[in-house]
Structure to design on (415 residues):
């Protein structure tokens, strides 16, 4: 078994002191075991980013992982046992533990793997050097492929030959840009950029769900604009988002996020690079298999009227009622970013006020139902729905004034 060289340390990190994590490591490493933290937790810690999920790599096959974990009083779940992954649960906290693996066969979408006890082989099958970093329970870092210098340089670099890594899984093209958005600095790695450009035709064979998952994570990055620029330059964004009409507007949205303290919103950012065309948005939602909530939000945004700084509160309330809070707010935010970028302070201030009103607005409940009209003497039929809609429109235009009795009085007056 080869053992990677060690360099650096994360000793003293708060997340390493977690009792549940140490319980899992203690159980698996009893009697000269070899289990280490791998991937995102180590990478994020080195970059100074929050550590969320902690994944582990081990020399032990799944059956031995289960045996050792249960001997240590921990629960297990065979969540991906065919691929070497067992979830070990310590006091309700799950940790994915995966046996070291080597690729046997790849087809550009998935790989056939074999278990190994060689840490170098396991590292070589990963995508980028910054993701092939390991550390033990004391925080000692194991860097078999030279990832630490890339962390220091904030460089996203493929392991080995970029073409080979991409040909194993074409999703790595999008991952290259996603990790650049989150961790990269300056220009993307030249060899990686050339490789993703050469092999971009392979994107066509990826599932829609995988593509959207990567795009959404990219759009959630602190600054996705640089990555999107290079995706446009390499003609990759046109492959995965043919509906896009440009990326210029995302810069002003991000500027507004910074000044207003708004959190990153992947769908809001996506809207900046899409035309507000309901037909194209429906096509995108279907093609990328967006969730119902995501598709509903984008469709509502596309159909909603553009924001108007001169809109009075009553008119804004009516628009919120008819179009929905989310769609109107999205339009307001984009308009605010546009006016702020243009230096139009009065318009931006008016839109900021409208956004604040939108955030506090509660949708009134129309007090009438179809049965109320029937009880008032109307005959069942299409006329009931039409009359109910007309009364609701008048109620909205009137500033939502009038309770059930007042509206019924209005109904009798009009008969």
């Amino acid at each position: 078994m080869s053992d990677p060289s060690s360099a650096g340390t994360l000793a003293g990190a708060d997340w390493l002191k977690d009792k549940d994590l140490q319980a899992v490591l203690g159980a698996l490493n009893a009697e000269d075991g070899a289990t280490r933290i791998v991937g995102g937790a180590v990478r994020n810690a080195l970059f100074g980013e929050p550590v969320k999920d902690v994944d582990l790599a081990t020399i032990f096959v799944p059956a031995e992982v289960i045996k050792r974990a249960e001997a240590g009083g921990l629960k297990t779940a065979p969540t991906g046992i065919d691929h070497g992954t067992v979830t070990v649960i310590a006091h309700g906290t799950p940790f994915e533990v995966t046996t070291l693996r080597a690729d046997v066969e790849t087809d550009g979408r998935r790989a056939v793997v074999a278990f190994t006890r060689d840490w170098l082989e396991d590292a070589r099958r990963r995508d980028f050097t910054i993701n092939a970093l390991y550390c033990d329970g004391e925080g000692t870092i194991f860097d078999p492929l030279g990832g630490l210098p890339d962390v220091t340089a904030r460089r996203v670099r493929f392991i080995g030959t970029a073409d080979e890594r991409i040909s194993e899984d074409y999703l790595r093209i999008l991952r290259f840009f996603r990790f650049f958005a989150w961790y990269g600095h300056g220009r993307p790695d030249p060899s990686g950029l050339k490789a993703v450009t050469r092999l971009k035709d392979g994107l066509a064979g990826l599932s829609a769900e995988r593509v959207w998952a990567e795009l959404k994570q990219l759009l959630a990055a602190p600054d996705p604009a640089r990555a999107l620029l290079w995706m446009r330059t390499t003609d990759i964004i046109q492959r995965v988002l043919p509906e896009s009409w440009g990326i210029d507007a995302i810069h002003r949205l991000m500027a507004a996020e910074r000044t207003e303290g708004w959190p990153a919103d992947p769908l809001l950012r996506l809207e900046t690079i899409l035309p507000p065309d309901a037909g194209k948005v429906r096509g995108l939602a279907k093609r990328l298999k967006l969730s119902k909530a995501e598709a509903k939000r984008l469709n509502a945004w596309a159909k909603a009227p553009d924001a108007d700084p001169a809109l009075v509160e009553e008119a804004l309330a009516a628009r919120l009622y008819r179009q929905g809070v989310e769609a109107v707010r999205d339009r307001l935010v984009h308009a605010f970013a546009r006016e702020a970028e243009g230096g139009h302070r009065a318009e931006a201030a008016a839109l900021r006020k409208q956004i604040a009103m939108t955030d506090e607005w509660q949708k009134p409940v129309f007090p009438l139902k179809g049965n109320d009209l029937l009880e008032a003497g109307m005959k069942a039929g299409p006329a009931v729905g039409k009359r109910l809609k007309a009364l609701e429109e008048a109620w909205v235009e009137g500033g939502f004034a009038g309770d059930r009795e007042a509206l019924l009085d209005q109904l009798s007056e009009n008969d």
Observations:
- The radius of gyration is 28 Å.
- DSSP finds 21 helices and ten strands in the chain.
- Residues 267 and 359 are 18 Å apart (CA to CA).
- The chain has a mean pLDDT of 92.
